[in-house]
Amino acid sequence: MRFERIAFVASQHEQAQRSVEDLRRLYDGARPGEADVIVALGGDGFMLETLHRHLSLGVPIYGMNRGSVGFLMNDFGSERLRERLEAAIPERLHPLRMVALDVHGRRSEALAFNEVALLRETRQAAKIRIRVDGVVRLEEMICDGVLVSTAAGSTAYNYSAHGPIVPLGAGVLPLTPISAFRPRRWRGALLPHTAKVTFDILDAGKRPVSAVADFTEVRDVVEVDIAEDRTVAPVLLFDPEQKLSERVLKEQFMY
């Protein structure tokens, strides 16, 4: 792949801002709408923002870590950038599409490259029914919340909630409870990536729940449908020694 026109975007972090100015001077940065590739400087949160903001452009994104964790980023370096871009390994991501219905009858849609999480809004625990492809699999769960994650996002909130890490290409979606009180020992499920998951909020007036797709929040939901959207497939670029599939696999052996 040849990348003649490079667009540089950066988070508001001071280090990221200094680095992006240096790169623009070195490589005569283009605007995102005119570029062959977008280089994003920041952390994982900024990478998610960049994916959402520039999804319609259809150009690959190469991240360089100028944040904290940087799981979705490559190491920062200003030298030989075009050579790094041309040698990079592409990884396609398929997001989850959330369709949420709130107590007022409004429908909202959003994409999630990490996860869709349902969270209680008050001191009252949430009561949630879980349906998979129209079949009730769990009549009532009393919990702080529940989430469905992508494979790429399985190392994030899903893992913090004691969900499994899923290798890229495994064809499964983790469904993970968040602090479940009932049933006590239920740890979640691994679903086919073709599954449609529906969460029904029970007693929504007394026990309100919000639904969050990455950073898009819908308050006071009564029903949330989640399914993988295979029609959306942005490309992230990774240095060969830091490719995402290897990182996800390696993460299972970290302690």
Explain how this protein is built.
The protein is of the alpha+beta class and 255 residues long. It has 2 domains: 6-93 and 233-251, 3-Layer(aba) Sandwich (Rossmann fold), CATH 3.40.50.10330; 96-228, Sandwich (Tumour Suppressor Smad4), CATH 2.60.200. The chain is 17% helix and 38% strand. It has 5 helices and 17 strands. The chain has a 6-stranded antiparallel β-sheet with strand order 6-5-16-13-8-9, with no helix packed on it. Strand 14 and strand 15 (216-218) form a beta hairpin. The longest helix has 14 residues, at 14-27. The chain is elongated, with a radius of gyration of 19 Å. The chain starts with 5 loop residues before the first strand and ends with a helix. 40% of the residues are buried.
List the helices and strands and how they pair.
Blueprint lengths: L5 E5 L3 H14 L9 E6 L1 H10 L7 E5 L15 H7 L1 E4 L3 E7 L4 E6 L2 E6 L5 E7 L2 E9 L1 E5 L7 H4 L11 E7 L10 E4 L3 E7 L6 E5 L2 E3 L2 E8 L6 E4 L5 H8 L4
Parallel strand pairs: 1-2, 2-3, 3-17
Antiparallel strand pairs: 4-17, 5-6, 5-16, 7-10, 7-14, 8-9, 8-13, 10-11, 11-12, 13-16, 14-15
Question: What tags apply to this protein structure?
Answer:
5 helices; 255 residues; 17% helix; alpha+beta; 17 strands; Tumour Suppressor Smad4; Rossmann fold
